[in-house]
Amino acid sequence: MFQTKIAGLGSYVPEKVVSNDDLSKVMDTNDAWIRERTGIEKRRYAEKHEQTTTTLAAEAAKVAVERAGIELTDIDCIIFATLSPDYYFPGCGVLLQRELGITGTEIPAYDIRQQCSGFLYGLQMADQFCKTGLYKNILLVGAEMHSMGLDFSTRGRGVTVIFGDGAGAVILQPTEDKSKGILTTKVHSDGTYAEKLAFLNPGTHGGYHLDKQGVDYDFGYDKSIEYGEIFMTPGMVENGHIYPQMEGQAVFKMAVQKFPEVIKEALDAVSLAVTDLDMFIPHQANLRISQFVQKRLGLSDEQVHNNIQKYGNTTAASVPIALTEAWEAGKIKEGDLVCLAAFGSGFTWGSALIRW
Fold it and tell me: Is 49 a known active-site residue?
C-alpha cells in the first residue's frame, strides 16, 4: 500500500471584489451587520457569461499541475467537487477535462456533490485510489460560482452576503515515503435535517420531502397534471424558492458540534492529540464558527488559517483555497501536521490529517 502525498497546490479567485458596502446598495444590509454575523468584509465574483465554475477550476488546476512538476496530459483522474455546476448535467468533471485540453486521454472524471464537505469527500476517494496505485496523478478540485444563483434582494440577504466565487486544486500522487502524506480521512453524513440548508428548486421532489418534514412552501405545483410535474413554476420564482434556503441557527448549532468531534476522531485514529497540530484549515463557513472551534480545541491564532474575511464562503473551494494560501504564506512547512475540516449541507462533514 502506498501513502498519498499532495504534489502540487493551486487556487484562483476572480478579480472582481464585492464589498459589504456594495451589497448594501441592492439590499437592506450594511457592513457592520454582515461583519457581526459572519466576519466577512468582502468576496470575489466571477464575470457572468464569461467565466463559469469550470473555468475557475481550470485556472486553479493549471497552477497545481505546474507546481507538481507534471504536464496536463499526465493527469489520469479528475475529481470535481461543487454545488454550483455549469449544468444540471453533465457534471463539471468532463467539462474541466475539455477545458484543460486533455479529452483525448479518456481518463475518468468523478463529480462530488457533498457541498461544503465536497473537497474532504474527494480527498478520501483520491487517497484510496492512490493507496492502491490505481492512479498516479489525480486532480482534485473544489470550485464554485455562487454569484450566478443568489437572491440579490433584502429577502435573500441572510444567504447572499455569505457566499463568494473561487476555486482550489491539488495534485495527489502515491508515494512510498511513509513519513509524509495523508494520515487519515474521516467523513460522515446525517440527512435528518437536509432541508435546513438546501437549494430546493428546480428539482424533482414535487414537494414530497417538504411535506414529510412539515415544511410549508407554496411552490405553485399543479397536482392535476398527470404526466410530468412542472419543473419550475411561477410560484417558485415569485416566492424566491429558486434560491438557496438556510436556517442559520440550526446550521451553526450542528457545525460547532461536529467540527470538534470529527477532528478528534481523526487524531484518535492515528494516536495523536490536538497539541500535535501545527496548522488547522477549517472550511470557511462563518468566522464565528471557526473561532468557536478554535477556542474549543485550544488553538492559537497562528495555528489556524482563516480567509473568509476577504473571500466569503466558497463552499467546496474554501478548504483548498485556504490550504494553498497558507502554504504560499509559509505557514505550512515540511514535517508539519495539518488538519483540514468541513461541515455543510446534507448535513455532511469530514476531516483529514496530513503530514506535510
Answer: no
CA 79 to chain centre: 13
Per-residue pLDDT tens over the stretch 269-294: 999 999 999 999 999 999 999 999 99
Does the active-site annotation cover 307? no
Q: What's at 280, amino acid-wise?
A: F
Place of cell 494520515: 183
Q: How many domains does the chain have?
A: 1
Asked if residue 123 is part of any domain, the answer here is yes
For 293, half-sphere exposure in the C-beta direction (CA atoms, 13 angstrom radius) is 34
The domain of 119 spans 3-175
pTM above 0.85, yes or no: yes
Q: Which residue in the list 77, 116, 130, 339 is annotated as catalytic?
A: 116
The question of whether 116 is a catalytic residue gets the answer yes
Catalytic pick from 20, 137, 313, 339?
313
pLDDT band at 57 (very low <50, low <70, confident <90, very high): very high
